[in-house]
Structures are given as structure tokens and as C-alpha cells.
Amino acid sequence: MRKTMRRRTSCGIVQKTARHALFLGALVLAFTTAISSAVAAPAPVPEADPFYSTPADLGAHKSGDPLAWRSVKLFGLSTPLPITAWQIQYLTTDSENKPITTIATVIEPTAPWRGPGSRPLVAFASAEDALTTACAPSATLRAPINIGSQTTLDLPFLVGPLLLGYALVIPDYEGPQSRFLDGVTSGHALLDGIRAARRFPSTGLADSPTGIWGYSGGAYAALWAGQLRATYAPELPLTGIAAGGIPADIPAIARAADGGPKAALALLITAALIRNEPKAKIEVLLNNRSTAMLADVGKRCGTGLLQTYSGTHLSDYSVAADLFAHPTVVAAAQRQELGAITPDVPLYLYHSNADEMIPAPGVHALINRYCSMGSTLTQHFSNIPGHSGTAMVEAVGALRYLGDRFASGPPARGCAAAS
What we know:
alpha/beta, disordered N terminus, 10-stranded mixed sheet, about 425 residues
């Protein structure tokens, strides 16, 4: 009885505080946007920052080991915040099983944790969605507030867990080559970012119950981490994964974007597959006009590409009649799709029935695959219209789910709809 009462109380507190957190996040965004130009100093891009340089002694370390670290000020603000923030360079492994280094930003409230046990840790997977490290979370979290930056858009989702007293780790899960939609690299780097945060001696997170949260591109990395945990990082005690706006059925996503206001997404996916699947030789299916486009897409953040390429068509750059129906492209995309491996971590998956960026049928199919393979999964299909609107409104459910896992452990096995 006592356990049941505690769970209900926890749910109520999490739901109420999460709403307050999201509201406060919006206020923080408005306030810092107004003052940032006066107090923020530009941060160097990763290519010009020695902190990102790869050490020579990688062979002396194992995946997830912190290699270098520094204290940082978020968004370059000089105003003290009730948090400590560190950036950690750590070792991870890419999809070719090669050792690489990447960066994680760890944020911890300065107020002591007043709950039972250790302070929970949330690995937040930002929707990096880019092919350049200039858009990596570690870089944009140190740069001045910019309404077009993904981490600026993420502010409400970062404030929510912090107000609940949780610590955050935000890995650059695309790695130093910015491998957007590279499932294995993303999953490994996210898991190793958690390892690095737990091993880092300046935080008390070694025994923290840990969950993962991601939306859109971040959901892709979160679920790949869930798929790979059992074989790659079996010692990590993940309590749950909350993932929304889930990129399932990559060709369907590209087709939905093609020719519309978010056509840049189709071009970004094409460029990512070329980078991630070099043996596929997708570039031979493109025409001469694609050269300048690929160069441009490769050096700018996804959010900044939308206006430039609004209304463009893949056929403008392709010699194939339907690029994402071509067997070469379909096979390359299939190798990066979610759903071939069963996550052994409890899942909370949420998506809009009216998502204009990621068609819902692919997400339904992914959930059916996970459930048929024995996943423990709670699903919620929202009637909130749109990809961005669902991200904001349904974040409360994601935080509630992670809070329940921290407070009460795993849910009942099997698949169910959210209550």
C-alpha cells in the first residue's frame, strides 16, 4: 500500500512540476533571448577548438572513458545559473567498430537531491539533424541564444528535468563526422555518453538511475541506444526510454518532405545516406546540380536549411525518376532503420496522428515489430496536430513516464496504450 501511494504521489508531482517546467522554459527562452546579445561571447566552432582534438593514446582507454573535461557556461551567459555544467570528451565506437571521440555536456542542479537514493540522470538526445559539428549540442549550448538553434528550441525540455532535480547528459551522438541517421554510431555514442557522465569524478552520478529522452532525430538515437544496450553496454542500468516524433520508414519521411516547406529534410536524408553508406554509391544517381546542394547541406544546420530549399524536389537533383524508390537507396535506408533489434529497456513511444514530417503508419509498424519481439512498451498516439506541437504538449507524458520509472521501477511486461 505504501508503495502504491508513493507512486501516485510521484505521478502527481511529476505531472504538475513538468507543466511548470515547460512554462518556465518558455519564460527562460524569452528572457535569455532578450539579454543574450549583451552578455554572450561567441564560442569557437569545434574545428577551431583544441578541446575537440583527438588524443593520441586512445588505445589506453575503453569506451565511455572521460578523456578531457572543462567547466562551461551555457549559451555564453555571464549571469550565474543554479546549475553546474561540464563538457566531457570521451571515447566511443562508430558503426565501423573504429574508436572515435565525441563530447557530452553534463548539467547538474546545484541544489541537493532530496529524493530517495541517488539523483536520477536523464540522457537527453537533441535532434542534431546536421552534417556539420558546428550544429552539435556541445557547440550550440555554448554559443549565444539563437532562435534557429536546435538547443535553443530544446530549452523547455532541458529545464523540465532540471526543475525535477534530475541531472542531464547531452551527448554529441553523431560523432566527429556528424553521421546523421547512422544508427549504430548514434546508439554507441549515446550509451558511451551515459558511461562518461557516470564515470566522471566531479559529479556524483555513478549510481544514478538513468533514463533516455529524445524527440524526432533524438528519438532515433534514443531507440538505437535501447536496441544496442544489451550487447554494447550491458552494465548500464537503464530504467526507461521516452521517445517521440519517431523517425521510422526513412523513404516515407523523405517523400513526405519532398517538394514541400520542409523539403530540406529530404535533401539532408539523401546527403546523410551518401555519407553513411559510401559503398552504395548513391551519388551516381544524382545530377550535376546536386554538387552545390550537397556542399551547402553539409555545412549548415537542418533548421537553417528549411527556408533555402522550401518547395524544391528531389527530382531537381536526381537522374532517378523516384530516388527513394530506387533499390540502391531503399537498401541503404533499410540498413539504418529502427526495428531489427528488440530493446530490452521499457519504452514510452509517442507520436502525432497528424505529424506532417514523419507519417504515422511507419511508427505504427515499428511499434508492432517491437511488440511482436517481446518489448515492454507503452504507446501514445496524440491528436495534437503537427510535429512541433506534439513535442511541446506531449513532453509532460514523457517526463511522467521517466519519473515513474525512477520512483517505482519497471512497468508490467508487454505492450499497452498510455492511460
